[in-house]
Amino acid sequence: MDPCPFVRITVGNLALKIPVASKPARSIVHPSSSPCFCKIELKNFHMQTAVVPYIAPENQLAENQLQTPAATFYLSKADIDKLAAKSIFSSKPCLKIAIYTGRGGRTCGVNSGRLLGKVSLPLDLAGTESRACVFHNGWISVGKEANKGSSAQLHLNVKAEPDPRFVFQFDGEPECSPQVFQIRGNIQQPVFTCKFSFRSTGDRNQRSRSLQSEPSSSRSWLSSFGSVRERSGKERKGWSITVHDLSGSPVAAASMVTPFVASPGSDRVSRSNPGSWLILRPGDGTWKPWGRLEAWRERGSSDGLGYRFELIPNMSAAAIVLAESTISSGKGGKFVIDLGGNNNNSGANGRVTPASATSPACSPRSSGDFGYGLWPYSVYRGFVMSAGVEGEGKCSKPCVEVSVQHVNCTEDAAAFVALAAAIDLSMDACRLFSQRLRKELCNPQDFLG
Description:
This is Formin-like protein 18. The protein has 449 residues and is mainly β. The chain is 9% helix and 39% strand.
């Protein structure tokens, strides 16, 4: 499998120094007594925000003092070409950073915080698809006094690194048992087939008929991940999807192990009682758990699909949360696992940056010289995967991107494809129970008797 070229631009190691002489009047908040923040922009990408630590002018910045990424942008080959094309008629693409004193956010419709200054850093992206490049590492003057030698100074590290990915595209909705193609440029090559099915009510130990046998020991752990919540009417249960390679062998599966049930007195799946999927991989003649996906319907203005994905390492009971966020039920969005972003933004114009996913609380949300490797509990670091999810009622053919560094075999890629199918199907599983599902998602056995 040949990957598609992607480039990761990372902004990190932020710090701010302001000379004592430039302290503003009492009516203006000084960063020594209040937090600072910045807005980071790259054309055609959603703006990201980050806190900027203040350092007293007399202090020195230790090399290991700041190791936190503030923003991450991911560029495909098409993104790079688009930026390069625009630079013919203007200057090179620039990263723009606006620094503010005071707290971020809005009060009564007015932006809080006072603009201290702006920084514009040109980016030459030529060749970054194959080699790393550091655009800036150190201090830079900001503000109106920049040419007078008495301005505030911003410390930052801006670099670009190759981040190739495998790209997979479903040619139909997961419940329609589609083929899955690998995409590279204009080339589409079939790599997997998916089989959607219903598990019978009495079979709580989902397994593929393609696997010859399943030891009795596997039944205990499969049932332990789900709960039997048999209620007539407001529940959706028994869905499963198996991913096969081109030889017909099963290489991954997603099984709904906890039914999606409407909470008492409502027609929605609540966060306190989510449905769940088990993502499975074959091993030793049986299925073994790789991860667990929980999903629910958020209330209030966010009204969307809430989700949490946990990694299950080596059958350990201590699962590791890799992603937790919300996808709009109307507009859709992206399911993302990214352990290297600042995790506070969603994209504009339908594009959602991978930083919109939430990293696990126990991870440093970073890597390389930004702190990767500090989290010994998982092999996953940096960008891991993303999968597009359409809103309710829209035709959904998920596009799945997986970092090359996390794919060592066909089963690795298939597991992410199965996970993408599960999150897409969860959008339907979490639809309000007052709404009807399409016929492919309705088990004929539910209408018997």
